[in-house]
Design the sequence.
């Protein structure tokens, strides 16, 4: 086994890994190594051929491949070392990793700091337990996206899409542009789970029927999908009797949720938050294991790549700081105060922060509401009765992550707070 | 006589919900836009809606079988399927460079179809 060592090691070359590695070098780390299991760098971006990336970060509208290309180039320019075709098998104390691949063979890499940026996976049919036969022709929307955009295959000719996540809506348009028919998109909730923008430009623009409060109740077909049954559901997701119908199709796509990929994190003993499926992190994106940081979809699922980048730049900076400091200086600064999800909020990241450490600047607090509130709301962070920061929004939706900034002035107002709450409440007119 | 209509702006991922007062195809009032691009969006949506096209084109002799392409700017909404169909007929020869023009001034729209990335020549 080969042995390498570096200052900061990043796992994953998607937008999070690229930004973290870039910033670690910019922050002065001597050797920054980025490990990627795929042949190509960029994570999921190369197959996201649609536009909508980079509006905040580059002030321009880019496709996924263009966004990836800019970050790969930037990371390369500042001296990040890439180890592609290399899969991390385990994370061990140090931190160190053991990885294998066609470039290095079996290798152990010791690092002073580690950034987890493995992204997420799609929820599958097995996880949904859709009854029926198991013919060919059932794919997650992301798999279909890979087949169509990278490999050059059409997975089918007549599609039903379960779920109104962004990947499903994007693929509804993509498949239609390639000459296929999308018979219907069904969504179990009474509202879409992806961006409203995609509802317009991917579904309505192409007259694709969208049925809310509807789900797939069975798959029909022996060797290949021949049809699916769909049914309306009530508020408890139970099929409404008499509403079941059969939709002929040859392919079923699933766009029903993304799950942070934390198999390696678990191995490393990183504490995971059941609300997010990702690590507990603080304002520095530090996990519960000293020296291990996390950024991007591995922490919680983002809607916009620009937010991933902004968060990962922080992780890279603090990972570099940690790698540079001696053992004595690694103790956390001040009290760690939990941030809890309050009224109407589903989850919050970071889950805790060092208020005194906000001297360094601001902490970005990211959260989602439990269900849509289509009316004026106030998003706020409170400490007991005291409102530290508040922002008015026209509406709040689970599909659109909300952010608030906390800075030193807020920290001083919070005083000896034991806990902070993040909440979204309807505005008084 | 003014009509009350609602739009979702697609200019950026925020997707502002726009409440609009329209007379014929003339915009009388607009609420809900976070920036002025929302105004342009509605004006265009009422008269000549446009969308950016993104798709792929086949590559021969490259390290990858496809190259992703994009329209250099938004195209009239009505021609998207036709342009996509036209692009399905093409095969590019590797190597392909990033932002190479695949079709110049497609269908006389003053918009080009360009590649989103490079594809190298296969060994």
Sequence:
């Amino acid at each position: 086994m080969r042995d390498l060592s570096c200052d900061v090691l990043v796992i994953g070359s998607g937008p999070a890994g690229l930004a973290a590695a870039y910033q670690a070098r910019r922050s002065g780390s001597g050797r920054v190594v980025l490990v990627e299991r795929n042949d190509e760098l960029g994570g999921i971006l190369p197959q996201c051929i649609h536009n909508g990336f980079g509006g905040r970060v580059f002030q321009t509208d880019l496709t996924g491949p263009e966004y990836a290309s800019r970050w790969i180039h930037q990371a390369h320019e500042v001296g990040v070392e890439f180890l592609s075709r290399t899969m991390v098998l385990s994370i061990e104390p140090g931190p160190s990793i053991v990885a294998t691949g066609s470039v290095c063979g079996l290798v152990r890499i010791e690092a002073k700091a580690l950034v987890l940026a493995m992204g997420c996976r799609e929820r599958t049919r097995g996880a949904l337990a859709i009854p029926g036969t198991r013919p060919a022709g059932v794919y997650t929307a992301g798999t279909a996206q890979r087949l169509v955009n990278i490999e050059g295959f059409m997975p089918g000719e007549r599609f039903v899409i379960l779920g109104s996540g962004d990947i499903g809506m994007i693929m509804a348009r993509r498949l239609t542009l390639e000459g296929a028919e999308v018979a219907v998109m069904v969504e179990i909730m009474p509202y879409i789970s992806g961006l409203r923008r995609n509802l317009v430009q991917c579904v309505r623009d192409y007259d694709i029927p969208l049925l809310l409060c509807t789900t797939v109740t069975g798959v029909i077909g022996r060797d290949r999908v021949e049809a699916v049954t769909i049914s309306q559901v009530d508020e408890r997701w139970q099929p409404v009797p008499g509403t079941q119908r059969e939709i002929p199709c040859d392919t079923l796509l699933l766009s029903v949720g993304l799950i942070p990929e934390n198999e390696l994190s678990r191995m490393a003993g990183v504490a995971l938050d059941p609300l997010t499926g990702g690590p507990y992190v603080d304002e520095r994106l530090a996990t519960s294991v000293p020296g291990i940081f996390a950024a991007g979809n591995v922490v919680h699922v983002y809607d916009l790549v620009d937010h991933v980048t902004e968060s990962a730049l922080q992780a890279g900076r603090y990972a570099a700081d940690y790698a540079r400091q001696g053992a004595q200086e690694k103790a956390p600064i001040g009290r760690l105060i939990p941030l809890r999800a309050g009224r109407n909020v589903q989850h919050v990241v970071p889950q805790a922060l060092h208020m005194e450490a906000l001297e360094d600047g601001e902490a970005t607090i990211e959260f989602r509401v439990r269900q849509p509130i289509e009316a004026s709301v106030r998003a706020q962070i409170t400490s007991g009765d005291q409102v530290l920061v508040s922002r008015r929004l026209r509406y709040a939706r689970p599909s659109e992550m909300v952010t608030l900034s906390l800075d030193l002035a807020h920290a001083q107002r919070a005083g000896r707070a034991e806990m902070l709450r993040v909440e979204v409440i309807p505005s008084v007119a | 006589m003014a009509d009350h209509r609602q739009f979702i702006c697609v200019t950026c991922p925020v997707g502002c919900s726009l409440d609009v007062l329209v007379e014929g195809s003339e915009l009388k009032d607009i609420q809900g836009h976070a920036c002025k691009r929302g105004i342009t969006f509605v004006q265009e949506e009422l008269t000549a809606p446009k969308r950016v096209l993104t798709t792929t084109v086949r590559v021969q002799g490259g390290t990858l079988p496809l190259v992703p392409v994009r329209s250099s700017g938004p195209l009239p909404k009505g021609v998207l399927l036709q342009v996509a169909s036209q692009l399905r007929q093409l095969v590019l020869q590797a190597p392909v460079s990033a932002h190479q023009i695949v079709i110049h001034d497609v269908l006389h729209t003053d918009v080009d179809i360009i590649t989103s990335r490079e594809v190298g020549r296969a060994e």
Remarks:
- Chain A touches chain B through 34 residues (CB under 8 Å).
